[in-house]
Amino acid sequence: MTDNEHEIEQADERVPKRVIGTPAPGTSMLGTAEAAEVEKEVPGVVLPDETKARRAEKIVALCFTITFIAAIAFIISYVVFQVGSPEATGVSNFALGLSLTVAILGLAAGIVIWVRQIMPKYTLVQERHAMASEEEDREVVADTFVAGANESGFVKRKLLRRTLLLAAAPLGLVPLVLLRDLDNSRMPGAKFNQMLRHTVWGEKTKEGKPLRLVVEGTGQPIRAADFNSPGGILSVVPEGYEHDLNALAKATLILIKFRPEELKSGVRQNWTHDGIVAYSKICTHVGCPAALYEQTTHHILCPCHQSTFDAADGAKVIFGPAARPLPQLPITVDAEGYLIAKGDFEVPVGPSYWERGDAEAEARQKGGQA
Length: 370
Known about the structure:
The chain has helices spanning 33-37, 50-80, 86-117, 135-152, 158-178, 191-197, 245-251, 359-369; strands at residues 45-46, 121-122, 213-215, 233-238, 253-257, 276-280, 292-294, 299-301, 308-310, 316-319, 328-329, 331-333, 339-341. The protein is of the alpha+beta class and 370 residues long. The protein has two domains: 20-126 and 133-193, no CATH class; 199-369, Rieske [2Fe-2S] iron-sulphur domain (Rieske Iron-sulfur Protein, 3-layer Sandwich), CATH 2.102.10.10. Helix 2 (50-80) runs antiparallel to helix 3 and helix 2 (50-80) packs parallel to helix 5 (158-178). The longest helix has 32 residues, at 86-117.
């Protein structure tokens, strides 16, 4: 036996365990402990029936628990369902949207039921007075806040308080998880950026030859000598991809025949053939098909939001919300005289996206270095 045995802390003397959401022993979360338990009868105030309040408390707790589960499901869906293809993107959007909707609806329904079924009903008369508040008024507001908190049952009803904290915890993590999209270079869907940046016009046929331009709908190759009427226009797709909707979403062209003297400085002359110019058909605003052409003014019009491009001057924007010209595709002819692509577009087609950056400036810089 030693004297140290008397100094050993007994189990009953240790600090009692406390569950998250519960105030420390001997203290009250809001106001005094007595105020939380006493429900005085006040004129104009209808207190809730305790039996119905307890039933509503369980429903609210269920709603908050559903919110917690749905928020966790949102985070799991964000990690599991990647966006490497349009189909996978659709599945990801559905899972994220459904889980986030259930989480928000569960939280909202729980709060509404809490307020309507558990808190007292007041008959209030608004008094108009000067905006400046006296010190006594501020004290009254503080007391009213504490009283309201006690009346809400947040202090008294532990189940409500704990399930509310449980529901709010994962929802607070949702914005942090979404910030991960700002740098997706290490995510499985990182290659999606390269898919948006390039089209199939940079590919070759099985024989290793450049892709021919064929008429959309018929698949007929285009001989430059046959497309010889100034002002003529064709909707064109790449050979071998006539029915590949994913490829056509980026690779569809508008082919226009000009007189040589009609072309302005904005057109890359070495990317044309005998006055034939090929532009992306995908509007740089939101991706609608810019397929309307006015022959006398050489204007290409997007019917969705009226963005207008000058086809004779590099498809520069002359009106509407589009911010960039339609990209020009470099073309030439093969040994048989059919129009072919010399390569892919120099810049990404269609509307902007996060990783696109200033692709036009990068292209100019590469051209200057060359």
